[in-house]
C-alpha cells in the first residue's frame, strides 16, 4: 500500500520523479525565447519520431509517392526531453506545446496546424487523398480518426506511462490501463475481422493514425516487451493489418526520415 496522503489542495512538487518529472509544469506558455528555422519547402514540420509524430511523416511520404509534389516538406527535430516544445516560436505554432506541428507556407498566408489528427485531416482534405469524398464513407473515416484521439491517451499516457516511464511499478494503475489497452486491441481486432482497413476496404488517414500507436504496439516497437506483456499475438486480424501496413514503402520511409536540427 502507498503511504501517500491526499492533500486538501494540490501543490506542484519540485520533481514528481520519472522520465518527465522535472520537465512538466502546471502552467502553459513559452519558457524561453526561440528562433525556429524555416526552410523553403511548401510545408514545415516540427516534430519527433513518436507515434504521434510519425503519423504526419507517413502521410506526407504517402502523398509524395502518389506524385503530390506540393506535399514536399522540411522536417525539424523538436527534442521534447530537452524542452524544445516550450520555446517561444514553437508555442506560437502550438500553444499546447505538443508535437507535431505543421506550418503550411504554400499560400498567401501561413497556416499553422496542430494536433496530429487535425494535421492528417488537413493534409487529406488539402490534397484530396486518403479520405473519401462520399459523405457516409468520410464520416466513417472520421469516426475512427477521432476514436484514435480519445483512445490513444489511455494507451500512451496511461498504460505506457505506468508500465515503462513511472519511477515505480504500481499494481493498480498498471492493471487499470493494461485492461483498457487490451479492450482497445480486442475492439480493433473484431473490427478488422470484417474488413481490410479500419474504415472499410480502402486505406485512409484513420489507418495511419491508429497504426502509429497500435500497429507499432502489435510489432512490440513502443515500450520494451510491452507487446509480450499484453499478449498481442492473440489478436490475429489486428496482427495481419499491422504487418501489412508496415510493409508499405511510404510507411517505412515515414518512420526512417531524417530530422534536421533546429540549432
TrEMBL record:
It comes from the Bacteria. Residues 134-263 form the GST C-terminal domain. SUPFAM superfamilies: GST C-terminal domain-like, Thioredoxin-like. It holds the Pfam family GST_N. Residues 44-131 form the GST N-terminal domain. NCBIfam families: PRK11752.1. This is Glutathione-dependent disulfide-bond oxidoreductase.
Amino acid at each position: 500500500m502507498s503511504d501517500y496522503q491526499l492533500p486538501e489542495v494540490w501543490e506542484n512538487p519540485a520533481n514528481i520523479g520519472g522520465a518527465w518529472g522535472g520537465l512538466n509544469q502546471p502552467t502553459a506558455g513559452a519558457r524561453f525565447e526561440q528562433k525556429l528555422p524555416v526552410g523553403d519547402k511548401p510545408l514545415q514540420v516540427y516534430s519527433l519520431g513518436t507515434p504521434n509524430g510519425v503519423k504526419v511523416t507517413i502521410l506526407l511520404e504517402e502523398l509524395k509517392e502518389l506524385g503530390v509534389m506540393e506535399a514536399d516538406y522540411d522536417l525539424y527535430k523538436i527534442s521534447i526531453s530537452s524542452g524544445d516544445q516550450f520555446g517561444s516560436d514553437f508555442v506560437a505554432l502550438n500553444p499546447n506545446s505538443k508535437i507535431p506541428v505543421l506550418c503550411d507556407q504554400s499560400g498567401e498566408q501561413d497556416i499553422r496546424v496542430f494536433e496530429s489528427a487535425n494535421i492528417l485531416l488537413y493534409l487529406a482534405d488539402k490534397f484530396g487523398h486518403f479520405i473519401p469524398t462520399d459523405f457516409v464513407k468520410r464520416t466513417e473515416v472520421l469516426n475512427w480518426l477521432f476514436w484514435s484521439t480519445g483512445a490513444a491517451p489511455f494507451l500512451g499516457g496511461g498504460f505506457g506511462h505506468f508500465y515503462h516511464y513511472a519511477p515505480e511499478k504500481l499494481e493498480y494503475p498498471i492493471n487499470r490501463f493494461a485492461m483498457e489497452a487490451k479492450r482497445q486491441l480486442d475492439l480493433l481486432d473484431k473490427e478488422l475481422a470484417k474488413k481490410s482497413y479500419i474504415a472499410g476496404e480502402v486505406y485512409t488517414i484513420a489507418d495511419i493514425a491508429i497504426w502509429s500507436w497500435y500497429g507499432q504496439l502489435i510489432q512490440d516497437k513502443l515500450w520494451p516487451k510491452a507487446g509480450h506483456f499484453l499478449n498481442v499475438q492473440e489478436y490475429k486480424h489486428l496482427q495481419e493489418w499491422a504487418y501489412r501496413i508496415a510493409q508499405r514503402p511510404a510507411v517505412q520511409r515515414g518512420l526512417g526520415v531524417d530530422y534536421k536540427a533546429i540549432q
